[in-house]
Amino acid sequence: MDADQILQQLYDQTLAGNRPEVVDLTEQGLVDGIEPTTMLFEALIPALEEVGARFERGDFFVPEMLIAGRAMAGALEIVRPLLADTGSDTIGTFLMGTVKGDVHDIGKNLVDIMLEGAGFKVIDLGVQVAPETFVEAIQEHKPDVVGFSAFLTTTMPMFKVNIEALQKAGMRDDVIVLVGGAPVTQEYADVVGADGYAPDAAEATRRAKQLLEERRALTPA
Predict the structure, then answer these.
(1) How confident is the model over 177-203, as a mean pLDDT?
(2) Alpha-carbon distance 165 to 132, whole Å?
(3) Domains in the chain, CATH or no CATH each
(4) In the list 61, 74, 114, 163, which could disulfide-bond 19, CB 3.0-4.6 Å?
(5) DSSP state letters, 118-157
(6) Which residues, in sequence order, are CB contacts of 17 under 8 Å at separation 6+?
(7) CB-CB contact of 24 with 76 (8 Å)
(8) 3-state DSSP assignment of residue 58
(9) Is the separation of the CB atoms in 14 and 72 below 8 Å?
């Protein structure tokens, strides 16, 4: 297979959730000289974005999303260390978690993958993350950006609770707060006092980079 065929197969097999084949294709791509970033942005991430689109249309359900995510994770285990060797420095640290009361993580996991591909070091606290856990993790890891994810309208109020916890701990001004999730809007993000909002993984990556660049431009060297 030539490079285009490998990328197409990588896309198709990720979409199908065929982890062993995705791993084999990733390894073959590297042997054939395909850049890790090319496989990531031209095959792997587009495949997961299509999975998300099919889920939204009702063509895919949670099991299909999960197996596709696992297939993607297999490729990422191979590609992740190589991305660090391509000469692209880590552009910042992003700490992420689904808020307390919410167990949804598929969208969050896709954001993680895209952030890593963009050069962020990602620390994922998982789901059902309590405000005090966020505070402790921020104290430990000192991230540049913190992401709060919520899939349910009933858990969205945790954004404000989390931000208030950061304020009480005296660290609100130390981090950029980005929020997202299916029911979240820009208006809601403004109301709770977040620095930014993203409706999807691609926008989350773009906004994180933009907000970080803006902050650093205002910070004396």
Answers:
(1) 92
(2) 7
(3) 3-83 (1.10.1240.10), 92-218 (3.40.50.280)
(4) 74
(5) HTEEEEE--SSB-HHHHHHHHHHH--SEEEEE--STTTTT
(6) 64, 66, 67, 68, 70, 71
(7) no
(8) coil
(9) yes
Q: What is the pLDDT of residue 6?
A: 96
- Written as six digits, the tokens of 112 are 């993680």
Residue 71 · residue 13 · CB < 8 Å: yes
Name the pLDDT band for 20 (thresholds 50, 70, 90): very high
Give Cα separations from 17 to 21, 39, 51, 143, 179 (angstroms).
Answer: 9, 16, 10, 32, 28
Q: What is the pTM of this model?
A: 0.71
**Of 58, 49, 148, 144, nearest to 104 (Cα)?**
148
143 within 8 A of 94, measured Cβ to Cβ = yes
